[in-house]
């Protein structure tokens, strides 16, 4: 990078550091149920409006106006249904949330917390001592969902659009001490990891490019114990022979990086879990340039990489007894002067060559070198890669699932269960020998695209760089990383998808 650009980049970094995030996480306190409350309250109500002690007390305080209002609204308490009631003195407002008829799992509790947040902007008391659940410290999961749903990104709004007043949330639950411990010592860090992923995923391409992401990762992890961060710059990437990652980065004035996050929470001789995330800070398509329509969304083409950082962060903050290495191959896919062309051949760090058919199939190129590096350097017991890889994956499974591809159905089924518990669902697509046949090149070892289905072809390209006996999970999150409308645990926009999935995987792998 020319010196003048370095100065400008350094200055913009300094400015970015000064702009603290305008959004604050809500502040939670957990306490035992107490009938002496007023202000805004949230009340959880099961299917059939079972009159629990809490509900009876609130109804009595309102002289029966609560039950009358529920009846008038035909409110049955089905899961996630909500009703906001005003003029319910001694309360300011009562938000009633239905909890359905099934027993509440951590996932469902998290969703309920999200629904509660969706209807409460001010300080609020959540009455949650009456829930049908076996979950210890249920209040902590409610808080997690509440915090996740409360996300906003106001950094670039000037004037008084930005809301930076802190919100105080009191969760009245059955085991307040346990809830406090679980939230402040654990779940809060998952929320922070998701928040990091959403923040960077929302940042525009002109503000956040590979060097800046690397810097933000360093800041995120500063002071976190047992973590070591290494950042390979363009020179290091060349020296390592990563021609594929380098090739993608070459069309941009913003050089590529490879961020390596090592968290050592178990013995030094224990093999780590490797998490590798695609980090394209903006995907124009390169010389195979994308159409204009919706291209702005390609600012979030680093969703995989930031989810990796977020999940390693959560594990490290709670000092999970496991070793993890997170890899973030970062590049900007631009059609600049030095950009790779269709027809070019790139040599990866392991020596295998790739013929470029489309420069827009760049995610698999940066992953090729990164997964190779992960195996050579760290010999992981499990390697997971996560990427906004193909429109094909999004079309195949829609908004509700990320695609999981593995070499054996058993592993994919395990991942479905992990996703189910995590609150981030995955659905399998195949990987067949024909998908490898379809990427044979006439002049190189493989080509980077061709044939169908696209999601499986993308996985086959990455799989070419994964040892046959390496336990391996491929996640294609192109359909889930960005939300066009609100869901229980997230407002529309960047979802931070993958932090919760990988967090759950790490928990189950370290049990
Ligand atoms: N980043 C895109 C995939 C994508 C598309 C993510 C839509 C999120 C929303 C990826 O780099 C890409 O361009 N994929 C191509 C592959 C094709 C050229 C083989 C695609 O899916 O069209
Ligand atoms: Mn692309
Ligand atoms: Zn891309």
Count of separate DSSP helical elements: 16
Oligomeric status = single chain
Question: What share of the residues does DSSP label as strand, in percent?
Answer: 15-25%
Q: How many distinct domains?
A: 2
What's the layout of helices and strands?
Elements: H1 3-18, E1 27-31, E2 39-45, H2 53-61, H3 65-72, E3 82-88, E4 91-98, H4 106-118, E5 124-128, H5 138-149, E6 168-173, H6 176-202, H7 210-221, E7 227-232, H8 234-239, H9 243-249, E8 257-264, E9 273-277, E10 279-283, H10 303-317, E11 323-333, E12 345-347, E13 353-355, H11 363-378, E14 382-387, H12 391-397, E15 402-405, H13 409-422, E16 426-428, H14 433-437, E17 446-447, H15 454-463, E18 472-476, E19 482-483, E20 493-494, H16 499-509
Parallel strand pairs: 1-6, 2-4, 2-5, 5-6, 9-11, 9-14, 10-11, 13-17, 14-18, 15-16
Antiparallel strand pairs: 3-4, 7-8, 8-11, 12-13, 15-18, 19-20
Helix pairs in contact: 4-5, 5-6, 6-10, 9-11, 10-16, 11-15, 13-16
The structure holds ligand BES, manganese (II) ion and zinc ion (ZN).
Task: Describe the 3D structure.
α10 (303-317) packs across α16, α11 runs parallel beside α15 and α13 packs across α16. This protein is an alpha/beta fold. β5, α5 (138-149) and β6 (168-173) form a beta-alpha-beta unit. It has two domains: 27-177, 3-Layer(aba) Sandwich (Leucine Aminopeptidase, subunit E, domain 1), CATH 3.40.220.10; 203-510, Aminopeptidase (3-Layer(aba) Sandwich). The protein has helices spanning 3-18, 53-61, 65-72, 106-118, 138-149, 176-202, 210-221, 234-239, 243-249, 303-317, 363-378, 391-397, 409-422, 433-437, 454-463, 499-509, and strands at 27-31, 39-45, 82-88, 91-98, 124-128, 168-173, 227-232, 257-264, 273-277, 279-283, 323-333, 345-347, 353-355, 382-387, 402-405, 426-428, 446-447, 472-476, 482-483, 493-494. Mean pLDDT is 94; it is low at 6-23. The strands form four sheets. Strands 7, 8, 9, 10, 11, 14, 15, 16 and 18 form a nine-stranded mixed sheet that branches. The protein has a six-stranded mixed sheet with strand order 1-6-5-2-4-3, with helices on both faces. The protein contains 16 helices and 20 strands. It binds ligand BES, manganese (II) ion (MN) and zinc ion (ZN).
């Amino acid at each position: 990078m020319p010196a003048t650009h370095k100065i400008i980049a350094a200055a913009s970094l300094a400015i970015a550091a000064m702009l603290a995030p305008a959004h604050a996480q809500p502040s939670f306190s957990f306490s035992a149920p107490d009938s002496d409350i007023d202000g805004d309250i949230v009340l959880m109500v099961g299917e059939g409006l079972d009159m629990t002690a809490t509900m009876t007390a609130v109804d009595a305080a309102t002289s029966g106006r609560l039950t009358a209002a529920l009846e008038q609204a035909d409110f049955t308490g089905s899961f996630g249904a909500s009703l906001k009631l005003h003029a319910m003195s001694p309360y300011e407002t009562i938000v009633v949330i239905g909890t359905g008829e099934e027993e509440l799992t951590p996932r469902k509790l998290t969703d309920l917390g999200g629904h509660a947040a969706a209807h409460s902007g001010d300080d609020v008391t959540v009455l949650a001592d009456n829930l049908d659940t076996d979950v210890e410290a249920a209040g902590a999961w409610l808080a997690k969902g509440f915090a996740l749903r409360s996300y906003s990104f106001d950094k670039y709004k000037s004037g008084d659009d930005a809301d930076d007043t802190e919100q105080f949330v009191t969760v009245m639950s059955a085991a307040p001490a346990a809830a406090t411990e679980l939230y402040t010592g654990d779940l809060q860090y998952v929320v922070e990891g998701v928040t990091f992923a959403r923040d960077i995923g929302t940042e525009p391409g002109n503000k956040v490019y590979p060097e800046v992401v690397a810097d933000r990762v360093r800041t995120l992890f500063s002071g976190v114990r047992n973590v070591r961060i290494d950042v390979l710059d363009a020179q290091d990437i060349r020296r390592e022979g990563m021609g594929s990652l380098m090739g993608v980065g070459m069309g941009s004035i913003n050089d590529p990086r490879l961020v390596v996050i090592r968290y050592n929470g178990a013995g030094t001789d224990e093999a780590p879990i490797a998490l590798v995330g695609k980090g394209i800070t903006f995907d124009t398509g390169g010389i195979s340039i994308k159409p204009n329509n919706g291209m702005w969304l390609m600012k979030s083409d680093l969703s995989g990489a930031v989810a990796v950082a977020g999940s390693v962060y959560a594990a490290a903050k709670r000092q999970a007894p496991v070793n993890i290495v997170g890899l973030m191959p970062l590049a900007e896919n631009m059609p600049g002067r030095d950009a790779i062309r269709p027809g070019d051949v790139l040599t990866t760090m392991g020596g295998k060559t790739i013929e470029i058919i489309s420069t827009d199939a760049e995610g698999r190129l940066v992953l090729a070198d990164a997964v190779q590096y992960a195996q050579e350097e760290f010999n992981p017991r499990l390697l997971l890669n996560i990427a906004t890889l193909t429109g094909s994956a999004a079309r195949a499974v829609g908004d509700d699932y990320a695609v999981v591809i593995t070499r054996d159905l058993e592993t994919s089924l395990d991942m479905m269960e992990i996703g189910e518990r995590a609150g981030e669902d995955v659905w399998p697509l195949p990987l067949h020998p024909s998908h490898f046949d379809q990427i044979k090149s006439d002049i190189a070892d493989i080509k980077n695209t061709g044939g169908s289905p696209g999601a499986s072809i993308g996985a086959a390209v990455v799989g070419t760089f994964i040892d046959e006996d390496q336990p391996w999970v491929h996640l294609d999150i192109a359909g889930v990383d960005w939300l066009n409308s609100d869901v229980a645990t997230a407002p529309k926009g960047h979802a931070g998808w993958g932090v919760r999935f990988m967090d759950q995987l790490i928990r189950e792998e370290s049990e």
